[in-house]
Amino acid sequence: MSCRWGFPGQRALALAVLAGALALAGCAGEYPQSVFRPVTDFAVTLDNLFTHVFWWTIVILVVVEVILVFVILRYRQRPGQLQPKQIHGNALLEIVWTIIPALIVVFIAVPTIRTIFDTYEPAGEDALIVEAVAHQWWWQFHYPEYGITTANQLYLPVGRQVEIRLRSNDVLHNFWVPRLGGKRYNYPQRVRPGEEPRYNFLVFTIDEAGEYPGQCAEFCGVAHALMRMMVVAQPEPEFQAWVQQMRAPVEPAEGSLEAQGREIFLRSTCIACHTIEGTTARGVLGPNLTRFGTRWSIGAGAADNTLENIAQWIRDPQSIKPGALMPGTTQGAAGMPPTGLSDQEVAAVAAYLHSLR
Ligand code: CUA
């Protein structure tokens, strides 16, 4: 068999260049969920720890490889050579190569443990508290200070300390927005009336406005991969404007398709699960739909937030997000009967939800 490459060395070099190019290609692009572009004090702390450990391991790698290559070349077998002196059972060597790795572990463990404690510092007095309650398969965000609730799209101010209080309504979930730091568990907990819920927590201050995607990081059932979220970090005035917007009802024009949609929404089973601020819809089993039209997606990242997708979702949610715990027009789900809405009714409700912006 003939080969284009004359020497094995050349082929190895070509492979190394190819591998290097592929590795470098990984550095291009946006990567909105990269932990290497931290935007909070929490994420910077984690990034510093990673960088610290990374360079220590590079030093170790270089030292070990240099010794290895030296030994291979210097002590390789030569023709007519006798067997070298055997050193099995050398106590000094055994002690040295036990102590060195133990020291390396200490070098890594000390900053790691310090970082763990740093990231569990409680929040200050005037931190913004957001309760993040995980559900199969979406996120509920409640702001006790403002008395507002939203879902999947989390608005946060830049420059103010935030305490995310984490718990779950059903199974184990995990809150992870890589550029903000984390990840951290949402522990399941049924809260009975009159009982104060207990929370896991995550404290950070965002220092750069932007949109930061995240997702559930613990396998939590069939739609785990479609349990995403979007953090919208804004300067304080814009954040306050959003808070005001969340409290002000959206009034569709008299006689419009949207107004019909609202009327249908409020007389059907939708209100058993959903709340829309400023209306009689007060359900809490499903996501709060106040200002739904401003969200980047439907179904917690399952599809783009377009009129067609909203209509398809109302008709048959499982066709977009298998496992979704919401009944369609002809198919029940999660013990709930089908809604029985006609195509015209679906179009009107979709127009109404789309207009909530
Ligand atoms: Cu929730 Cu995975």
Fold and architecture overview:
This protein has helices at residues 8-25, 41-74, 91-118, 236-247, 257-267, 270-273, 307-315, 317-320, 343-354, and strands at 128-135, 138-143, 148-151, 153-157, 161-168, 173-177, 181-186, 200-205, 210-216, 228-234, 297-298, 303-304. A five-stranded mixed beta sheet has the order 3-2-1-5-8. A five-stranded mixed beta sheet has the order 4-10-9-6-7. It has nine helices and twelve strands. The protein has 357 residues and is α+β, with helices and mostly antiparallel strands. The model has no long low-confidence stretch (mean pLDDT 92). The chain starts with 7 loop residues before the first helix and ends with a helix. Strand 11 and strand 12 (303-304) form a beta hairpin. Bound molecules: dinuclear copper ion. Dinuclear copper ion is lined by residues 134, 137, 173, 216, 218-220, 224, 227.
Key features of this structure:
18% strand, alpha+beta, 357 residues, binds dinuclear copper ion, five-stranded mixed beta sheet
List the helices and strands and how they pair.
Elements: H1 8-25, H2 41-74, H3 91-118, E1 128-135, E2 138-143, E3 148-151, E4 153-157, E5 161-168, E6 173-177, E7 181-186, E8 200-205, E9 210-216, E10 228-234, H4 236-247, H5 257-267, H6 270-273, E11 297-298, E12 303-304, H7 307-315, H8 317-320, H9 343-354
Would you kindly provide a brief summary of this structure?
This protein has about 350 residues and is of the alpha+beta class.
